[in-house]
Amino acid sequence: MGAAAITRTRIFPLALGIGALAVAILAAEVLIRIGVINRFIVPLPSQIAPAFWRVIVEEDIAERFRLTFLEALAAGVMITLIGVAMGVMLYRLKLLRDATETWIAALASAPIVLMYPLFLVVFGRNAWTIIMMGFVAGLPPVILKTIEGLAGTRRVLIDVGRSFNLTGPQLFIKILMPAALPTIFVGVRLGLIFTLINVVGVEFLINFGGLGQLINDLAERYDLPGTYAAICFVILVSVCFFVLTEWIERRPIALAIGIFVAAIAAAEPTAADAERWFESIVSWFSSMARWPEVFIATIIRLSSDPANLIRLLVWAAALAAMLLGAPWLRPVTLLRIGIVFAISLVWEFLAVSGWLYQDVVPPLEAIATAVWALLTATDYYGNLAATAGEVGAGLAIGGLSGIAVGLVLGINRTLSRSFEPYLYYLGPTPKIIFFPVMIMWFGVGQGSKVAMGAISCFFPVALSVAAAARQIDDVLIRVGKSFRANPWQMAVKIYLPAMRHPVINGVRLGLGVAIIGALLAETKLSNRGIGFLINQAYSLFVMPRMYAMLIVLFVLAIGANALVGRLGGLAAIRQR
Fold first, then answer.
1. Nearby residues of 150 by Cβ (< 8 Å), 6 or more positions away
2. Per the count of CB atoms within 10 A, which of 287, 319, 368, 514 is most buried?
3. What is the phi/psi pair of residue 208, to 5°?
4. What is the pLDDT at residue 82?
5. From residue 283, how far is each of 75, 279, 286, 289, 354 by CA, in Å?
6. For residue 75, which of 160, 4, 134 has the smallest C-alpha distance?
7. C-beta separation of 246 from 425 below 8 A
């Protein structure tokens, strides 16, 4: 059998990928032993392997895994039930869908994880903060994919259902929902991945919970072999989780059974657990029963404070005037304005009600004042420039390397089958777990933040480019070869122009995760940057300033994402 025939066999790419990984580990062992790589930064691979068992035994990794699993499971059940229900509601209410769908898409691209200080204030330093962060991060893709699946149902199927005189509920149950299930499960899978990433990330950031806290503890003790072993364990858990979601996507019926069995197996409820859960449920219902009493007390408090009452009446009057006296506006625009005013009215009511801790929900006037003070402060722009520099450098390094690796994997089928699975399964891994390693390698300065942005950006760009390179028309490739173009010319003049749309999409995804990676690193350990300012505002409990920075940050992140698409001519591509 010739060399070309061997490379086309199924076993060769697998052997090449495993062999390359083994060679890399062996090379690292040799380079560390001869002193080329500092062993106080990177431990010997031969030390990491025994550390697995030590971490499992001494750090109670089974209990930590159980905590992380239950947090991700609780958030996953919530995003599935609430996300699908909201998607169905928006599909049925077209006007509401047109008004809010772009907002939900923008929320999916916003750095939601940076809101964890707010969730800490509202829920406290407990599992509920982690669960709710995972829920908020995983909800948008479920809603969007549910809408996409229902709206993409073939018209002929709906006409067939109507020809049998099916009622509305029957048409939904027998036609729409079965046709949309594959797309809905794609959204649930994406939501579960986002949920796991945020659960582990928040555990690491607040040093509470399961696997994320384990890595943080080991890094703070400077247990290098243990830290690397724990990181490898989290990668293994992430890969298994990703494979499991793929399997569930192909077998939707197993989802409910799997969730039920896994929850019972992982929870291992005891009598004490059951009593504690029962007490929490009773406490929740008791608090619900007190809401009318609290509401009446709030109304009495408002009536005794004319300033607060006047402010609420002004918001209500503005909302009524907008809804009733603006016939020149389109219905979608009118509904959007109405939703904004309604949310503002509820916010103002909560701000003056005293239901939450003081300043957890500050008045909008205080937030607006904080936004103005922030935008007129010179030190803010210095910190913004520091964060922008870190994100820009990370995007450049991760994006360019991702494009190069993606091109190589997309063009060469053997290399793709050998190494692309590593990228495919490492991509959904929570990148914040690598931050202790980045600090060891690049220090506590901007280098570690740039590295976090680069490693976060690399995977979506590389995978997007690799997939796009395989979709290029063979005619274009043959034309390039007929002109005897070298590999560089083929990449620049044939592949990249033909892959413009996927490359832009990959860069947009890379920009979003690069912003998240750099900012999370700043909130964890930094004395400069937007992440540092947010963490500082939370530490000093200056809530209006923290809200102001989150608002400005979200606007900048969403605007930068839209700008990349516009500069790349994404709208023109879609019109073609």
1. 87, 88, 91, 176, 177, 180
2. 514
3. -150, 140
4. 92
5. 21, 6, 5, 10, 20
6. 134
7. no
CB–CB of 415/466 below 8 Å? Answer: no
Cβ neighbours of residue 144 under 8 Å, at least 6 residues apart?
Answer: 87, 101, 104, 105, 108, 187
The pLDDT of residue 554: 82
Q: Based on the number of CB atoms within 10 Å of its own CB, is 374 exposed (0-12), middle (13-18) or buried (19 or more)?
A: buried
Helix then strand count (H, E) for the chain reads 29, 0
8 Å CB contact between 204 and 433:
yes
Q: Kindly report the CA angle at 528 between 122 and 368, in degrees rounded to 5?
A: 50
Tell me the per-residue pLDDT of 180-235, one tens digit each, with 9 for 90 and over: 888 888 888 888 888 888 888 888 888 887 888 888 888 888 888 888 888 888 88
User: Where are the strands (E) in 24-96, listed by range?
Assistant: none
Q: What CA–CA distance (Å, rounded) separates 406 from 511? A: 17
Q: Which two tokens stand for residue 530?
A: 């937007």
Going 243 to 245 to 251 to 253, the CA torsion angle's sign is: positive
Contact of 262 with 76, CB cutoff 8 Å: no
pLDDT at 260: 46
- Distance CA(390)–CA(523), nearest Å, equals 14
Please report, for residues 89, 323, 340, the alpha-carbon distance to residue 331 in angstroms, rounded to integers and kept in the order given: 18, 10, 14
Sequence-distant (6+) residues with CB within 8 A of 107 are: 140
What is the pLDDT, as a whole number, of residue 251? 59
* Amino acid at site 69: F
Residue 409, token pair as written in the block: 């994997």
Q: Which amino acid is at 440?
A: M
Tokens 């299930």 -> residue: 181
pLDDT at residue 397 in the model: 92
Please name the amino acid found at residue 421: P
pLDDT of residue 58: 83
Q: What residues of the chain score a pLDDT lower than 50?
A: 256-257, 260-261, 263-267, 269-270, 284, 288, 570-576
State the DSSP code for 304. Answer: T
Spatial separation of the C-alpha atoms in residues 48 and 218, rounded to whole Å: 13
DSSP-assigned states of every residue in 479-530: HHHHTT--HHHHIIIIIHHHTHHHHHHHHHHHHHHHHHHHHHHHHHS-SSSH
Q: Residue 270: which region, alpha, beta or left (left: phi > 0; alpha: psi -120 to 50)? A: beta
User: Cβ atoms within 10 A of the Cβ of 474, count?
Assistant: 7
CB 433 within 8 A of CB 212: yes
* pLDDT (0 to 100) of residue 62: 81
